[in-house]
Write a structure and sequence with these properties.
The chain is α/β, with parallel strands linked by helices. Helix content is 40%, strand content 21%. It contains nine helices and eight strands. The protein has an eight-stranded mixed beta sheet. Helix 1 packs across helix 3 and helix 7 packs across helix 9. The relative contact order is 0.13.
């Protein structure tokens, strides 16, 4: 039985997939996003070591709530693909024991070969696409995005269901051309069921201060409803362009 390094858990999640969900936050991440609300989750050697059975015992009292709402379990992070064997075993057990829906919330910074068994046990991937420009992505997250885009195409090719997420950060991820490019990329993918524009928030800034870290986005304001609606329109236009381009490629 595999063990995992656990950051925290939530028994009544409502924003990380359909229905009411058990949300498990794993420890460890290869990215260091400038707006991360859990920078204490980056360290791969921190967290509490738990077995799959330990987590199943945490889930069991709430199973009927998850079933009745059409929910299930979501594993997030940190970056859950860093502990792919543990998450795969946990997902399989949740399906075998209770038939729960499984969702993986990932940055996509993962080689597909490391995640095949995990994806076989995953019903939905919540995929964060933070920036389409490689240089801007590195500036925002400390890593390039080529591996992430490759992972997204791999999910598309294997027919995995996806919700694509973009955190909207004024001055960082709200450029009109880049948002349209994001939409075109999404439009060329199969299996995308939903696209979410998530307004940047500052709720985790205090954790940076507690860790003695300078917050990179100090002074950046949270976007308002009009900015969020504008971003969604630009992405939507790009999605339609991407779908047309995909249709042309398929038909020629």
């Amino acid at each position: 039985m595999h063990t995992g390094r656990i950051h925290s858990l939530e028994t009544f999640g409502t924003v990380d997939g359909p229905g009411i969900r058990f949300v498990l936050f794993l420890q460890g991440c290869a990215l260091q996003c400038g707006y991360c609300h859990n920078p204490d989750s980056w360290d791969t050697q921190a967290g509490a070591l738990k077995s799959v059975d330990d987590i199943l015992r945490e889930i069991e009292p709430y199973v009927e709530y998850y079933r009745r709402s059409g929910g299930g379990i979501t594993v997030t992070g940190g970056e859950p693909t860093l502990q792919a064997p543990f998450v795969a075993e946990l997902f399989r057990a949740c399906k075998e024991n209770w038939g729960l829906h499984t969702a993986l919330d990932s940055s996509g910074f993962c080689e597909p070969s490391r995640a095949e068994a995990l994806l076989d046990a995953t019903d939905l991937v919540l995929l964060d696409l933070k920036q389409m420009d490689g240089g801007a992505h590195r500036e925002l997250t400390s890593q390039p995005n080529d591996r992430i885009l490759r992972f997204a195409r791999y999910l598309s090719d294997r027919g995995t269901k996806m919700w694509i997420r973009r955190v909207l950060i004024p001055g960082w991820t709200d450029n009109a051309d880049e948002l349209r490019e994001l939409g075109r990329f999404i439009g060329g993918l199969e299996g995308v069921e939903k696209v979410e524009v998530l307004p940047y928030h500052r709720m985790g800034v205090y954790k940076w201060h507690q860790l003695g870290k300078a917050y990179p986005l100090e002074g950046v304001l949270e976007p308002g409803p009009e900015e969020t609606a504008r971003a969604w329109r630009l992405i939507s236009h790009g999605i339609e362009e991407g779908k047309r381009e995909l249709a042309l490629m398929v038909n020629t």
